[in-house]
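--- STAGE predict ---
source: upstream dedup step, 1 unique chain passed
mode: sequence only
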Amino acid sequence: MFFAPLFAAVLAAATPAPDSAGVAAPPPRAGRADRVVREFAPVTVVGGRRSDRYSAEAVHPVSREQLRRLPVDNLAQAIGLQAGVVAVGEDLHVRGGRAGELATTLAGVSLNESQRFTPMQVPLFAVRSAELISGGLDADHGGSLAGELDLATEVPGERPEYIVRWVSDGRYGSGFDAGHVRLSTPLGFRGLGLVAAGEARLDDLGLPSLRTRGRSRVLGRSFGWRQDNHLLGWAKLAPIAAPQRWSFEVLTQRTLRQPYDPMFSFDGWTFFESGPVCPARTARRTATAPWARGCATERRTTR
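--- STAGE serialize ---
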């Protein structure tokens, strides 16, 4: 009589519970739709160098927005605003390094020349982003001593577009003018696109311009070379859908300097005679003096 409740309890514990996976879900209600609770912003992943705060190597990224927003006239001035960089003209000195010790690369190709190690200048509107790597550099930085400047250029777009900017002091300062332009258009052939940029910087450096023969007047305005002239050009051909697959880029640069010299006039170079200047009467009366004998000799030879 005492085993019946115990046997019933053992049977209840040994009976398996019903499987929840096998239970059919209730049918959805008619007219019910899924409701979006929250939408998150898309995350864009861009490949680049990562800065390690525990390493001596430092990476200073400069985005496209910063390059367009900064009040600068060329790329060297924009990079010169970074920590540890001093810009002297077109030369960049990173952490006390000399001019030429900074390697400039574009798509993995070095832009430094082999003699003076000065890099080619790239138009400001041609640069999409830049990364300045300084500090203790690894072996993949091209053997540079001061640092490396890695540039990424613009890519062609699906629609034609252009941007133009002109900066001038109105001839009230040093006589500075700078023009920037960028054009982008699809070619309509095999999905290719073309983008080109140009830059012109003309400066008199605050000194008078005496070479009047090198200038022309058109519609009442004076046009011609100034004392410091820089002309830059860049063009890129790449597929619009995947510009990272391959690209063909061309860079050109011309620098013309005509420094100021007070000895230059409209007629040419002026100079002073090193010998004494003496009239004919003085040369006849004082022919015994050493300087007078030189005047008399010079007079006879000129005749």
